[in-house]
Amino acid sequence: MNQRVAQGQINMHDKEQSFEITVNNKKCRKCSYCIQICPAKAIKFYKDQVTIISERCIMCGSCITECPQHALNYKSGLQQVIDFIENKEKTIACIDPAFPAILDFWTPNQFVTVLKKIGFTEVWEGAFGAELISQAYRKILNEEMQKPLISSFCPVIVFYIQKYLPQLIENLVPIVSPMIAIGRIARAIKGSDWKFIYIIPCLAQIKEMTSPEVAGAVDRVITFKDLRRLLKEELEKKENYPETPFDGPKPFLGRVISVIGGLYRSTGSQFDILMDDITVTYGHKRTIGSLNQLATGYINARFFDFLFCHGCVDGPFIDRDLSVIARRQKVVRYAKQEMEKQDVLSVITELDKFEFIDLKRDFLNMEQKLPVPTEEQIRAILKKIDKLPPSKNLDCRACGYASCREKAIAVAQGIADEEYCLPYLLEQSKKIYKELEKSHRELQMSHQALEQAQAQLIRTEKLASIGQLAAGVAHEINNPLGTIMIYAHLLLKNLDKDNPMREDVELIISEANRAKEIVQGLLSFARETKLKPGPVNVNDLLEDVLGLVVNQSLFHNIRIEKKIDEELPTIVADETKLKQVFLNIILNAAQAMEGNGRLIITTTKDKKYIKIRIQDTGPGIPPEVMANLFSPFFTTKEKGTGLGLAISYGIIERHKGKIDVETELGKGTVFTICLPLDANEEEIGIK
Ligand code: ADP
Ligand code: MG
Fold it and tell me: Which residue in 177, 157, 179, 183 sits closest to 169, CA to CA?
């Protein structure tokens, strides 16, 4: 039977260990660092969510280990391993050759005791897989070569080539990784009822395990991080256990495969600086750069050993408390110490035993291509995020891309969010803040306007109801008052000039006249009299009013200042009524100043209104008076009627105008009257 097919069939009844990198978007702070460090453009940032594009991912694990928020994780196979142990399955824990780097308290053979104590049936050294494949490499390297060869030892490099440089697939050494090699040995010598668990510092091997070209050799892969969780209690106890030898086939030089150059060294070759056709390259920037140069034919050699990390001793899930050099030394010292105990002949015999293991593999083309956007598309995106002209490109990398242009390309390819550009967002938030501030101000203003309108409405309603009552009373009083006047005049006529009664009758007449005035005021307040609209020049009208008062003694010590807008247009209004308003306000001002002070009269206009300001330097209006200022019959004067402002208010309102008061105690008061520019006769006339 074909060995590879047989191995592939084994254990397929088990549920496969699926591979997945997950993002906890609640933990994620959208710093874009993962996008920046991902060598495969496999991270998408869209609609405020970070997602891994699994087809593009090369499983290097950088995003998981580097995320400052620890928001990324991988789906671990640990629980299934625990289940195997709990179900008393026969298990082999096969530990990656990098393992001495993670031991601080236990010796390697005490470590075997610990692993067996927690329930593994056997503990193997993964290095024997390396032993086997390095022999296969040696054969290939000694053959006549048609093309440069790339080691297929590091699964991250293999995935990168399969996905992004498929033209280099034919350069990959067609040999399985040490993990698959030893997995196949375990299958061959233990049979299908044993569970073979590989424990590694790498992430990509979880995915490699299920790759169709090599699937079936390994049951579960767990990382050193998983192992730490599994050994938590033992690690805390730190008990000094006896030593137990490893099970499984004994490796030799393969133990150094996890350090840089280990693969080449374990083929039995020695490094020589003058040998430039064998190269070892490590670290993701260097390897990816070199691979791309190799693909374009820029560099050439017989054999390229590419390692994504600084060797497996620097894999993503290794403890980083020790430096990489210290880790390397631990691995090498362990290898040397063990090799000293071994005789080479027994090693060769061991290797010969497994000659039948098929170490070949092939590599699927898994090419990943993103659409190439047109120059127009790129420019449109750059423009949208305010990055045109190019002088506006900051290339700040906050979005995770090396330049604004790269970011625009990623947006066009649908893997980046165009709005997620820090300088752009800052600019936007400044704009939004300004707009919010503006609308807040407008809202406050409209709130004030609303309050004023409400107060005005209440005032108007109150005045209207008082007005109705007043009108009724005025009508009733008017007739008897007329009779009183007529009879008082008749009486006066019939009295002799020296009749002492004359004075009394004259008092009756003057008081009746006063009563008549009040009634007139009441009627006027109650809008009983109709407006007689006509063209009015407010400046002239004010002159007339001032002409009426200036000669009164009350005004003798008042300085009148006029700031008149000569261009004031003529408006449609009831001249007599307006005169009454201004007269009243001017008189009030003069009375408030008790004949001493300044009276400043200003006329201006804006788009809608003519404004007349009448300012005095009187005592100002106290709040309790302010509250009743426009109420009919409210007066603080001994002989006042309290109707002046109530009537004025009504008149201005009927002209569709406004009357406002500003006052400051001790400084004075300003009455401002606004009269609409566009009022037409009908509008005013019908009221
Ligand atoms: P009257 O003048 O008959 O008192 P008004 O309606 O004209 O009635 O005025 C009502 C009240 O408003 C006045 O009694 C006075 O207390 C107050 N008042 C009006 N104008 C002024 C002003 N310029 N300065 C101070 N108080 C004022
Ligand atoms: Mg008055």
Answer: 157
pLDDT confidence band for 235 (50 / 70 / 90): very high
Q: State phi, psi for 611 to the nearest 5 degrees.
A: -120, 130
Ligand nearest to the CA of 517: 1
| Domain termination residue (choose one: 500, 526, 552) | 526
Question: Which residue's CA lies nearest to atom 13 of ligand 1?
Answer: 635
Say yes or no: 508 and 644 in one domain.
no
Tell me if 50 is assigned to some domain.
no
78, 222 in Cβ contact below 8 A?
A: yes
Ligand 1 atom 4: residue of nearest CA: 635
CA of 446 to the centre of ligand 1 (A): 30
> Which atom of ligand 1 lies at the shortest distance from residue 636's CA?
14
Ligand with minimal distance to 645 CA:
1
Q: Is the peptide bond before 535 cis (omega within 30 degrees of 0)?
A: no
My answer on whether 135 and 211 are in the same domain is yes
Residue 51 lies in a domain: no
Q: What sign for the dihedral angle of Cα 228, 233, 234, 238?
A: positive
Q: Candidates 635, 638, 643, 673: which one to mutate for ligand 1, based on the most atoms within 8 Å of Cβ?
A: 635
Average pLDDT across the chain, whole number: 89
| Tokens, residue 345 | 């002949």
pLDDT at residue 12 is higher than 50: no
Q: With 50 as the cut, is the pLDDT of residue 373 above it?
A: yes
- Ligand closest to CA 647: 1
Best residue for ligand 1 mutational test, from 645, 648, 669 (most atoms within 8 Å of Cβ) = 645
φ, ψ of residue 505 in degrees (nearest 5): -65, -40
Q: Is residue 65 in a domain?
A: no
pLDDT tens for 627-658 read 889 887 889 988 788 888 988 988 898 899 99
Whether residues 400 and 509 fall in one domain: no
The domain in which residue 464 lies consists of 429-526
**Residue finishing a domain among 526, 550, 566:** 526
What's the pLDDT tens digit per position in 48-88? Answer: 889 999 999 999 999 999 999 999 999 889 999 999 999 99
DSSP code for 339:
H
Rounded distance between C-alpha atoms, residue 190 and residue 198, angstroms: 15
Residues 414 and 471 in one domain: no
- At 457, is the pLDDT very low, low, confident or very high (cuts 50, 70, 90)? low
- Domain of 522, CATH number, reads 1.10.287.130
Verify that 178 and 87 share a domain, yes or no. Answer: yes
How crowded is the C-beta side of 152, counted as CA atoms within 13 Å? 31
Same structural domain for residues 274 and 306?
yes
Indicate whether 687 pLDDT > 60: no
pLDDT for 1 beyond 70:
no
- Surrounding ion ligand 2 within 5 Å at CB are 588, 644
What does the pLDDT read at residue 94? Answer: 98
3-state secondary structure (DSSP) of residue 611: strand
- Residue 648 located in a structural domain: yes
Statement to judge: residues 564 and 542 lie in one domain: yes
